[in-house]
């Protein structure tokens, strides 16, 4: 069910920066309206909104301030898309975080820099990286069914959805979850005749040169100094477009993006390294993890 994005409408969470910004920019350039749902806009995203105002004759962009952990605000994204454009055809629940110091496996709730609390009984990283894309997927499916029109949902996974990474175990777990969700919904593209086709797939990037990394010193310390292995967000956005427009990328497809682009198979897959997309950390970075564990052991 290839979908030409021209004259369509997309909802993209996290499009205020990074991969999702590049995806929004690419779609707008191809004549697709975009609802940008994020907590804030970086200057380049603000400029993009100004370039495609609601008063323009072609593609249009709308910013809707959105906390993706708040389900009511997620509902509002769809209401805005319906109000301005008659509804959404493409949905990308792309907002995500990379195990920050404020919701981190190695900094337990109620300690250090963690904002996760014992009383709250939840991890913010799971609310953003797992619960939000699951809930948006439910909403998008209902939205497409009620409109009785086909739709596409594009998720952002990671090479971490296959490969382990000692410094960021919760992030890795969240991307394994996204892979499982996408694969489990593959049959939506082949529904009974009276229902619209819905494609659910994902892109799985290697290490991406975005503010998610470059604005965080603790993450940059993880990067190999002589071989960082960066992939550009523009490259990833192009593959995300292919997941919508190309017939061969049927529901359940996960495309890895690194030195090469390749399909991630459900079983008997060689992993990112087999496609030249393995990510290595600076050898000294793991010392921080062991130091945290030694500190906890000393407190007994």
Automatic annotation (TrEMBL):
PANTHER family hit by this protein: 15-HYDROXYPROSTAGLANDIN DEHYDROGENASE [NAD(+)]
Task: One Pfam family, please name it.
Answer: adh_short
**Record organism:** Lachnellula hyalina
The GO terms describing molecular function are: oxidoreductase activity, acting on the CH-OH group of donors, NAD or NADP as acceptor
For the keyword Cell division, the answer is: no
Name of the protein this chain belongs to:
15-hydroxyprostaglandin dehydrogenase [NAD(+)]
Q: Which family does it belong to?
A: Belongs to the short-chain dehydrogenases/reductases (SDR) family.
Q: Which key words tag this protein in UniProt? A: Oxidoreductase
The keyword Isomerase belongs to this UniProt entry's keyword annotation? no
User: Could you tell me which InterPro entries the record lists for this protein?
Assistant: NAD(P)-bd_dom_sf, SDR_fam
This entry carries the following GO cellular component terms, namely:
cytoplasm
Q: Domain of life here?
A: Eukaryota
